[in-house]
């Protein structure tokens, strides 16, 4: 009898424990805490500027810092001067803006004035993103063409200063400025034509005015500015000088060639090299097409940068 009562007691106890655990689990499932309203929301995925549809056009207009630089006529395969490019503006152009190594963003339709010019600061906001608007004023090119003008991105992070220094030194040696300071401003690797072989692009200049007095005409010293492309031709590396200026004395007209950009402006998958030359009153934008061992200037335009324009 006692054994039967003990057995019954154990069964009741086990039943109570099982019911209690089951009940707790149910409570946990039905009374789970609601997500907090103040919980951090996931960051929205930024819109890919290249995914924004652009109007189809045979004309690709190029702008830079508020200036219409010119355009490329894809149908007739020719460049159009800045003054004539202004006449081609329709008002539905959408420009994609590129920096040296990235796509900055895509701007909205421009508002065109009666004189067919664009007021970048007032009438042509690049986007509703203030951060983007600030970036494009640093250094940018805007292109209305509906393709990706940066199909391959320049890589400057792995640039070997010794390698690029040798490129600059070789060019200085040929111009009898062997003892000049080597001052590299920008260097990068880029596959210009998409053949899988990487070219090296370097810009360097040294316009330290102290040099003019310190050298006192000594052989091998002077000032310079250059943009050089190092390319493998027939299995051998060769230097192609895109732009250059040298002086063993104070130059009458300083011209500094700034860090170049590379973009496919004419949609042929062969990226052009865009060089800006600056002096006191003007800025000249020049576009070069590389073919073999030659760099041909295909377009250029001059921008007046005088502060006091009359």
From TrEMBL:
Leader sequence residues: 1-22
InterPro entries: Integrin_alpha_N
Bias (Low complexity): 32-42
Disordered: region residues: 25-52
Superkingdom of origin organism: Bacteria
Keyword match Repeat: no
Ribonucleoprotein recorded as keyword: no
Keywords per UniProt: Signal
Name recorded for this polypeptide: Lipoprotein
Taxonomy of the source species: Bacteria, Bacillati, Bacillota, Clostridia, Eubacteriales
């Amino acid at each position: 009898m006692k054994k039967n009562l003990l057995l019954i007691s154990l069964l009741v106890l086990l039943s109570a424990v099982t019911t209690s655990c089951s009940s707790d689990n149910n409570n946990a499932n039905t009374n789970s805490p609601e997500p907090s309203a103040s919980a951090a929301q996931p960051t929205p995925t930024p819109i890919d500027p290249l995914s924004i549809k652009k109007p189809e056009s045979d004309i690709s207009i190029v702008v830079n810092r508020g200036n219409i630089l010119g355009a490329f006529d894809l149908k007739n395969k020719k460049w159009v001067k800045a003054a004539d490019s202004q006449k081609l503006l329709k008002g539905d152009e959408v420009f994609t803006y590129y920096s040296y190594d990235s796509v900055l963003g895509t701007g909205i339709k421009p508002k065109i004035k009666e004189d067919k010019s664009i007021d970048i600061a007032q009438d042509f906001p690049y986007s509703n993103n203030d951060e983007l608007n600030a970036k494009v004023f640093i250094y940018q090119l805007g292109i209305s063409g509906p393709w990706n003008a940066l199909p391959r991105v320049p890589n400057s992070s792995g640039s070997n200063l010794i390698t690029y220094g040798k490129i600059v030194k070789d060019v200085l040696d040929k111009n009898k400025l062997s003892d000049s300071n080597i001052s590299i401003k920008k260097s990068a690797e880029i596959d210009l034509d998409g053949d899988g072989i990487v070219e090296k692009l370097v810009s360097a200049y040294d316009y330290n005015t102290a040099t003019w007095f310190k050298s006192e005409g000594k052989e091998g010293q002077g000032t310079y500015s250059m943009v050089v492309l190092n390319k493998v031709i027939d299995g051998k590396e060769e230097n192609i000088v895109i732009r250059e200026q040298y002086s063993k004395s104070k130059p009458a007209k300083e011209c500094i060639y700034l860090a170049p950009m590379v973009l496919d402006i004419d949609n042929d998958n062969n990226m052009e090299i865009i060089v800006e030359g600056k002096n006191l009153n003007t800025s000249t934008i020049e576009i070069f097409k590389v073919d073999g061992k030659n760099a041909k200037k295909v377009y250029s335009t001059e921008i007046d940068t005088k502060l006091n324009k009359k």
